[in-house]
Amino acid sequence: MFSTLDHKSFQGMIVLDKTVVSSHESKQKAGAPPNKTKPVKFLGAKSKSVGGCATCRHRKKKCDEVHPSCGFCTRRNIPCSWPPPRPRKKYERKNKIQNIPKSETQSENVSAIQTTSKQDVQRIESFDSLEENSKAFSFMSGILNSTEIDTKTSSLESIVPYDENDADERASVTTSMILSGIKTPDLNMDHDESYKQMVSFSPGLKEGLDKFTKMLSSEKFTYPNSAKESWLADKGSPFEILMDSQASGPGFQYNYFEKFIENCLNPSPSKFYSTNFEVKLAFKHMESSLSDKGFKFLEYYIFYYSNSITICPADSNYFVKTFLPLAYSCEPILYALVSWGCLMYHSQDEARVYLHKATSLMYKTIEAKNSKDKTYSDYQHFKEMCSFFLILIGWEICSGDTNNWYHLLAQCKELICKYGGFQKISEMSSHSNDIKWLISNFQFHDVFASRSLETGTFFLMSEYENVLEEDISYGIDPIQGLARPLNTILGEISNCSSRMKEERKQLEEEFSRSEIDSITYNSKRLAYYEKCETVAAYFESRISSCRPNKRLLALVKEESSIERHLTLFELYSYVCMFYVEIYIRQLPPKSIKLQTLLLRSLELIDILIDTVMMVSLPLPLLIAAQTCYMPSDRDDMRKRLQNVSKGYHIGNFARMVEIIEESWELNPDGSKILDWTEITHNRGWNLYVG
């Protein structure tokens, strides 16, 4: 992606089609126009058999589209005929996006080997010319020469002292829900009704929201066959199982379940097991308590939803890799996953029924375990409890909740503290990847909570870094990708900003109460501004020296996926810069610095918005939208938000759009220093923007 991406030095990491590259180079030298035909080389079926052979079309089955004879016809030794190719539509798109194949919108979790096209090579080489126009590319200059990123966090204690009581005060509003055995949250609360009663819109805000609603109403989302029903379709033969007298014991059952998980994490291009039969057989011991409909919702979670919210290769999908084995042995987690699948596939009301059963079962489990062991040393018990909390947090966020999820996060924090903190838990588990995933998941929600910008995160970022060393065995994080070091910097900026905000507020109160004279006030104010500049320079240095991990990058097989990961990394470096300018230097949206960052960020957002990286765009979109002040920029941003809403079906995203519209109303010309967390605070919201 970047100017330093040298294919020759990268051969050990990426397998390129040398004929494509050499052909591309020779034609460029001869001045001939680029060849528009892509080499046809597929392994496995696409999401749709648009270009399938006539035989497969007649059978209404998927075709792997291998030329000259597809796999189905070859296996049966029958003639394979192909219809004439359809004329392709031409779209006028920005030159930054035009070379990105539309197939990038497919899930990258099905890691079939694809031939690198000339357009992909051209897309990557084009970043050489972009370097001259983007200062942000300069900090990536050592990407392939460095062996690791620098993830060590330097202390800011000498500049801005940290108050350890901040996190405790923030969590004091909620006491232990499950650990102490008090009542669970009101899972039957109608979020929509309470939301309507709480919020009253001004005419200006209502007009803006109406514009956005009208754009969505014309194409109201319904799952298309390719998304909602294809995961139920016949995608291959079932497992070859000897259904004899020996295939009924508990040993066979768990061996089959392990094989089932293995195929979920490493789906074969020619065999992708997604039938209801496979799920029922894997969870055969639960067949008496879980209905057919429940199995259907679980199947949806496993084969569709868990893949749609991750940006990692399939073998790093810990939404399946960690949660599913726990669901096999822990009935509350099983029902929680069924509820999550039901919420995203069917109905929130019915999902609450499963969720209520999950919480009831977990409460009984907790009571039974607490009566036997009160030393908080049972690693398996912690893993089940922490996973259960994180699943409930994800459920609430998807439903559009703006409070319960944060209370659950506080309960999860309390659980972690009772077990001795991250370091002790990690040692207890022998530094297992499952624990790394749970800690990383918690960190992501901690950093991306609106409350963290107000009062700081629950844990210091250094506590996360001590146990989250990036290594090959863990793989690429499902929700943070390669950008986790930058998210750590975001957390540090949030903590620093909340402390400096208190210092600024205290200084203004002293002056307003006439406790200090103007000379003393100006002296303290100057010292404060100098501190702001020192802190800003410190974080700018951290951002510019941050690099993606080369060893993790080698785990990405497809060159187009490498490009997307690096683009996302650069975009989050811009988000960090936004944080520095907005929350440390206190610049208004209209400033030249923020407008420059805005335009550069929008270029990267437009590249990623139609890809699997869409799920990582809410925070960049929120920060960029807050910086838009020209009417044309705001109209274009509404279109981007509409585009994301069609593919990112998380309830909190709609809440985020409301915050954006209100920020535009409060800051019509971009001259005010406006913090979007003030809007969420006034509404009584704890908003998640990840």
Automatic annotation (TrEMBL):
Subcellular location: Nucleus
Any one GO molecular function term: transcription cis-regulatory region binding
Superkingdom, taxonomy of origin: Eukaryota
Domain spans labelled Zn(2)-C6 fungal-type: 52-82
UniProt keyword annotations, A-Z: Coiled coil, Nucleus
Pfam families for the chain: Fungal_trans_2, Zn_clus
GO BP terms, alphabetized: positive regulation of transcription by RNA polymerase II
Coiled-coil zones: 490-517
GO cellular component: nucleus
Main location group: nucleus
Protein name: Zn(2)-C6 fungal-type domain-containing protein
Species classification: Eukaryota, Fungi, Dikarya, Ascomycota, Saccharomycotina
